[in-house]
Write a structure and sequence with these properties.
alpha+beta, six-stranded mixed sheet, five-stranded mixed sheet, 13 strands, flat
Length: 439
């Protein structure tokens, strides 16, 4: 929007210059001192507008190229990636938190803050003036205390006398490796028109009238939804010299965001959540046990695996992978394809990463708490589909709110990370779901 305003201002100034020149030519006179001063002011302002417009257009071009070129995180030259990785490595949560509490900002943290502010401004997302803003690059690198060459992603800064934090076992995130489609750096809502009827033609006599069949269109709308992660850090830990707090806090927030986003993409539909694959009412549904209804759920059979594939391909989809949870995976490894089959001919072979000739991924983020009929709340899901038809959108970078007051009496600082995201199925019929498996 600022580019448009600058161009409009440039047009007004040029129009004023033309009027001034015409007046001088018409009256065949020299410029007055006032006119000379005004001419100099306009000339200087036009130089500033030109420089600022060029900079903003470059930023806008880079942002659009980033969205269009890459399905996950956007593209950049190798030199740009190297430079941004260096900045991400140099970024310190500890310094950023200290700067937020003191009001003094400088260094890499301030440069990142300014860049993220530009991202949010382009996205049209309002953020607090007192927050620490982070471009998404800071969180796109998987930083751990033992990662990188000789611990170069954090571990190198940890004193040997200080034990590392033993974290909880976390669910595996699996969707990024399945080619989901990303729409990053958005500004405002994103509407994607979708055709809901296939092209139609018909055979006619030589002079027969062709039958018209008008295509029907609908749209998919992505709109920003706030995803927040929260952690409390002791003030004593923040004051310690070891930089291991950077690695832990960053990784904690990365994991919290990634896990919650993936849960929404797979299931979704909760309060303020996007609707995920299982929650979408327009996907293909297969009932467990080879049934056409399975009112109370059932143990799965080989037919269920094949039916999921058939449902997608019958709707002209091209599935690429199955995803499920460890309970279903274990059940498939001890369930024979057919009762009269050869011993050991199980639905899933031990150690196999494939099912029915397709990739299979397993995560506890695929729910085992689904409800149907009288079977309780312990039903599991198996999903087959083309995961490039799952869209994830983001607006701007991330906003880190540093609150040293709420937990002051306990010596704690609250850190809240906000991101603005949405999830939609681009083609629901490219997915088939079995969500009533007893495993």
């Amino acid at each position: 929007m600022k580019i448009k305003a600058l161009k409009e201002e440039k047009g007004r100034l040029i129009e004023e210059l033309n009027g001034l020149q015409n007046s001088i030519n018409t009256e065949a006179r020299s410029m007055t001192d006032t006119e000379k001063t005004r001419f100099s002011e306009i000339d200087a302002r036009l130089d500033v507008i030109g420089t600022e417009t060029e900079t903003l257009e470059k930023l806008q071009k880079r942002a659009s190229e980033k969205v269009a070129s890459a399905p996950v995180y956007g593209a950049a030259s190798s030199s740009e990636k190297t430079e941004r990785n260096k900045m991400a490595d140099a970024y310190s949560f500890k310094r950023a938190i200290e700067q937020a509490t003191t009001g003094r900002r400088d260094g890499v943290e301030y440069e990142m803050h300014k860049e993220a502010a530009d991202e949010f401004q382009r996205a049209g997302v309002s953020v607090s003036a007192h927050s620490v803003l982070l471009p998404s690059d800071v969180f796109k690198r998987d930083m751990t205390a033992t990662g990188g060459s000789a611990g170069s992603e954090g571990g190198v800064n940890i004193q040997t006398s200080v034990g590392g934090i033993v974290d909880v076992l976390l669910p595996q995130t699996i969707l990024a490796g399945l080619g989901v489609t990303r729409f990053d750096g958005l500004t405002g809502n994103l509407d994607l028109p979708t055709a809901s009827t296939q092209p139609s033609a018909g055979w006619n006599t030589e002079n027969g009238t062709a039958t018209e069949k008008s295509p029907a269109f609908s749209k998919i709308t992505f709109s920003p939804k706030r995803l927040a992660a929260f952690i409390q850090v002791s003030n004593q830990l923040l004051r310690q010299s070891s930089n291991s707090i950077d690695a832990y806090v960053r990784q904690y927030l990365i994991n919290a965001m990634a896990i919650e986003l993936e849960k929404a993409a797979i299931l979704g539909g909760g309060s303020n959540e996007p609707t995920g694959i299982i929650g979408n009412a327009n996907t293909n549904v297969v009932f467990a046990g080879g049934s056409t209804s399975a009112a109370n759920g059932a143990a799965m059979v080989w037919k269920d695996v094949v039916s999921l594939m058939k449902s997608v391909e019958s709707n002209n989809g091209m599935g690429q992978a199955y995803i499920t949870n460890p309970l279903v995976k274990a059940a498939m490894q001890i369930t024979a394809r057919q009762t009269s089959g050869v011993e050991g001919n199980f639905i899933l072979q031990s150690g196999a990463g494939e099912l029915n000739g397709y990739t299979m991924k397993t995560s506890t983020l695929v729910p085992s708490t689904l409800v149907k009929g009288t079977s309780g709340s312990t039903l599991s899901a198996l999903i087959f589909g083309d995961f490039s038809k799952l869209g994830i959108a983001s607006w701007g970078g991330m906003e880190l709110t540093v609150d040293p007051y709420s937990g002051a009496t306990a010596g704690l600082t609250n850190l809240v990370l906000n991101a603005y995201l949405d999830v939609n199925l681009l083609q629901p019929k490219a997915f088939a779901v079995c969500k009533d498996i007893i495993a």
